[in-house]
Specification:
two-stranded antiparallel sheet; binds adenosine-5'-triphosphate; Heat Shock Protein 90; elongated; binds magnesium ion; single chain; alpha+beta
Length: about 300
């Protein structure tokens, strides 16, 4: 081998070694670095995607709660709208009916007087009807005024100390007249000591009047109503039991809603508007008490009760 051939082979060998070395270095350092960079970038992206997913689920939750709020306000709007239209129909129909009765009977009276020059025979009956119609109208007007006060947050209580025993005696004496007309026996269990409560006397008598009025209205002829009260745990509890149609389980809360009347007695139902218990509930709650009903079911009678903290 000549010297030039030896040099050529030697240079080729060196070049080959350098190429191999370059390949090895590139592979070992550059590619590894590239891999690391790619892995890091991938990790960053995954983190960003996870963050975005979290933000997205937060927004979805927010949207869901907004949809729920919207649904509830819609429900409330529908309820208010329902109340408004019932108000309208009462104003249009139930207020006009007693009014036209007043007008009709008054003109009968006037005609009678005109033709005879004296008070006619039909005077008494007509006068009674006038009184009944105006009474009904007054009661409805008072209830509607209470409801509108409640709705506008102006239903305030004038709390003064008074004897609960005396109040109950007064209300029972008043309601006993209509109880006797239906042959209903109204029993009051006397409480041995005089209980003084600090409350709005007029409003509490309104509650008992409605409970007692309901019991008389819904009880059958010859029924039996019993009222009692006691003081325990710093509160007064009043209970009124009747042997009327009772209240089915699913109606127990509903009857305390405005305008809600159950279908137990259609004739008795017509003698009211379903406002009394909702107003009673507002009054009792304004005194920090509770009101409710217990009944074993249809035909089993009911016990309405309320509590007032002393
Ligand atoms: N003692 C009772 N026995 C059976 N059902 C009752 C009794 N008291 C109330 N209810 C039911 O509860 C409903 C609501 O009573 P609430 O006193 O609010 O209205 P109302 O008596 O019908 O009318 P209003 O009190 O406005 O004259 C009644 O219509 C009736 O269906
Ligand atoms: Mg009533």
């Amino acid at each position: 081998m000549s010297t030039s051939q030896f040099l050529l082979s030697y240079s080729l060998l060196i070049i080959a070694i350098i190429a191999l070395l370059t390949y090895w270095i590139t592979r070992k350092f550059v590619l590894r670095k590239m891999n690391r960079t790619i892995l890091k970038a991938e990790h960053n992206y995954q983190q960003q995607i996870a963050n975005l997913q979290m933000q997205l689920s937060g927004k979805v939750n927010m949207l869901e709660s907004m949809v729920e709020k919207l649904r509830l306000s819609n429900q409330e709007l529908n309820r208010l709208n329902d109340i408004r239209s019932k108000f309208m129909s009462i104003a249009a129909h139930d207020l006009r009916q007693p009014l036209s009765a007043i007008q009709g009977f008054t003109s009968v009276l006037m005609m009678d007087r005109n033709t005879t020059g004296n008070a006619g025979n039909s005077d008494q009956a007509a006068l009674n009807n006038i009184l009944k119609a105006t009474d009904n109208m007054n009661m409805l007007m008072a209830d509607l005024i209470d409801i509108s006060r409640i709705e506008s947050g102006q239903f305030s209580m004038d709390k003064q100390p008074f004897s609960f025993n005396a109040l109950l005696t007064d209300v029972v004496a008043l309601q006993n007249v209509s109880a006797q007309k239906k042959g209903i026996y109204l029993q009051t269990c006397e409480y041995p000591t005089d209980i003084t409560i600090t409350a709005d006397r007029f409003r509490i008598s309104q509650v008992i009047n409605n409970l007692l009025g309901n019991a008389i209205k819904f009880s059958p002829q010859g029924g039996r109503i019993e009222s009692r009260f006691y003081v325990d745990n710093g509160k007064l509890t009043f209970l009124l039991s009747d042997n009327g149609p009772g209240v089915i389980h699913s109606e127990k809360d509903k009857i305390f809603q405005k305008f809600h009347q159950s279908d137990v007695d259609r004739t008795a139902k017509k003698q009211g508007w379903g406002l009394g218990l909702s107003i009673a509930q507002e009054i009792i709650q304004a005194h920090g008490g509770e009101i409710g009903v217990e009944s074993a079911g249809l035909g089993q009678g009911s016990t309405f009760w309320f509590t007032i903290p002393l």
